[in-house]
Structures are given as structure tokens and as C-alpha cells.
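Reviewer 2 asked us to include a model.

Predict the structure of this chain.
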Amino acid sequence: MSSLRPLHLVLGVIALVAMLLPLVVVRLVPAVPPPPAIAAALPKRQVIPAKQLPPVEPVEYAAIAPDDARSINAKVPFVAGPVPPARPFRFVGTADDFTRATDCLAAAVYYEAGDDAIGERAVAQVVLNRLRHPAFPKTVCGVVFQGSERSTGCQFTFTCDGALARTPSPAAWTRAREIATRALRGDVYKPVGWATHYHTDWVVPYWSSSLDKIAAVDTHLFFRWTGWWGTGGAFNRNQLPGEGSVAKLAALSEAHRTGAVLADADAAIVEATPFFGRTPMPLASDQNTFLTMLNPAQADTFASMAQASCGERAKCKFMGWTEPDAMAFTMPLSPDQMNAMSFSYIRDRASGLERTLWNCVEFKKRTPCMKRFMIRAMPVAEPAAGPAELEGVRRKTVVAEPPEGNSASPE
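Predicted model (C-alpha cells):
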């Protein structure tokens, strides 16, 4: 037994060292601090005083792996209390301004949200919220392309990272324009309220640390400024007329082509088609239907434009308006939109139908004319029967004609 004691002693010492070594290592080896980017990205809510305009930070992301970013973003709570919706937007400007604004907004919703209608509506709302806030430009195109002249200053990454070289499909671009148009005409996407910022959940922008997180739409998180600057009262600025042309959209939007680029484009259009005009794109929801703005000074080209747009389609509808505020952008049409229509072309080769129709109140020397669209008057509650009433007599249904100047249904 005595011969085994030294062995037991050695084993005991080894066991003791094995137990103490990790403790020694932990104490002697300095702790590895978290990456500076993660520390910088941790939420630090900051309220900007009402007398100080909040800064508009450029897009800059913390160097964090996507999984780490998702973890950080998930730990940021949503703001307590209600998220009131934005007020409907009212566009100010000419028909050309509206077209340029539509294409700027359509580019933003498509390149920021992809071909996803819900995400696109959310992005459109943020852009229009920004326009009405004192901290941002006062035109749609100005908001979308703010800072795009330098790679480190753009507010929307697609404007300075080369994404515009990727052309959307015709259907996707048409859908983006429809969503942009509805937003410019007052459609409100309520879930994001007065949000002015957003990002995907796999990145952490440096500015997100000081904002209120108010909504999530798929993988996008939406934020508003804290304090008064995030309330509806702060969004008190009006849009300025005069949407400028954006050279970066020239390849995608004819409305943004200027100078030699526009001259070359127009020459190609005139050479390729028998009319001086531009063929619109069909609705994303119906590739056989075209809704478009028309220039009344080019009435002689309307029929040729419609036939060129319809191409070889067996069935086709081409409907145009000369007043921007009256134009429709989706189907079905409302009675007011049908009454305001200026020109239509209908084709159905299976039944041998092909005709053009005109709003003869607007174009007095054009034929054939559209039928007047009759608007039934709202039903009026009948008064209680009195002595002068005759039982069994049926009152006439009142039908009111639309006021002079309205057009007719193309059907």
C-alpha cells in the first residue's frame, strides 16, 4: 500500500491542476470585446428637440453578419401606443410633372421592394411622407434621388449602387407605376403610419439606433423620428411643382430623357411607328387593356397609337384621357372616369368588332361619338302619403344626365 501512495499523490496533483487551470486561463487572458460595429448598432433612442431639425443621415450600415443583425433588430421593441396613418397625398403640378414623379416613385418602389405589391405600397408611403417633412426635398424625384450624386450620400441605395442597370420586366414596371400612381392620387398604406425610414431585418443602419420602430412588413422594418418630429403635425410642408428630369432614369423612363437622348428616342419612335406619340404599356392585371394620357393637340394620331399599342392582339381595349386628374389607372372604371374619357379603341376579332369612339363634347368634329353615360340619381326618401297622394300611383325613377362636358362609355 505504501508503494501506491506516491502514485495517488501524483494523480491528485494532476486532478487539482486540471480543475484550476481553466480558472487561471480565464483570469490571465484578456476578454475579447464585442466588435465595435455591434456596439455602435445597439439601439440608443434619441429625441430631437422640436426647435432643431433632425439630421438626414446617409445610408451606412454596421459591419454585422446577417444573423447578428436579425438578433439585434429583434431585440428592439416596437413603439408603444397608436401608429396613426398618414394623410392622403395630393399631387401638385402639370401632366409632365406627374409622369416624371410617377416614374421616380415607381423606380423607388420596384428597386427597394422588388415585384411585391405590399412592400411597394409601403415604400411609396415612406417617400411621400418624406416629401411632406421639413427635413427632405419637396419634389418626389428630389426625395427619391436625394444624395445620389455621390455613392456615400444616397438615401435609397438603388440610386447609387448600379441597380438601375437591371431593367424590370414590362409587367413588373407597369405594376410599380400603378402603385405609384395610386399613391400620388391619395392612396394611403396605413400600417407604416408616418414612417420616414426603413431597412431590411438583416442589416443595421447607424441611424436606426435613434428612431422609433413602428412597423414590420415582411422582412422590412419601418421607423419614425422620436418626439414631435415623428408626429403628424411635423409633416406640414407642401410639394413644390416642377419635377425635374433625372438622367439616371433615362433608360427606363421616356419622361426623363432630355437633350440628345430625347431627340434620339423621339426619332426612333417616329421611324418605327406611323404616328408621333409613345405607345403605353398594358395593365399588369390585363395585358389586353391600355389606359393612358393623351395630348389633345395630337388627336390625329390617337387611332394609330391605339392600333400600334394593341399590335396583333385579338382582343384589345385602349382608353385615353386628356385631363390628368380624371385619368384611370386600374380597372374597372368608375362612372366619373368613363364620363371623362376622351378617346377609346375596342377590338374583338372573334366577333368582327373594331371601332374608335370619341368624346364629342371635347372633340366636336370627331366621330363616331361615345354614348352618354347616364348617372342614376341617389334615391330620395318618399314623404309620408298625405291627402293629396293617390294610392296605387307609381312614381317615376329619376335619371339625371351628367353635366355638359362629360363623355361616355366605350361599351
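The chain has a mean pLDDT of 78. The first helix runs from residue 5 to 28. We have added this to the supplementary material.
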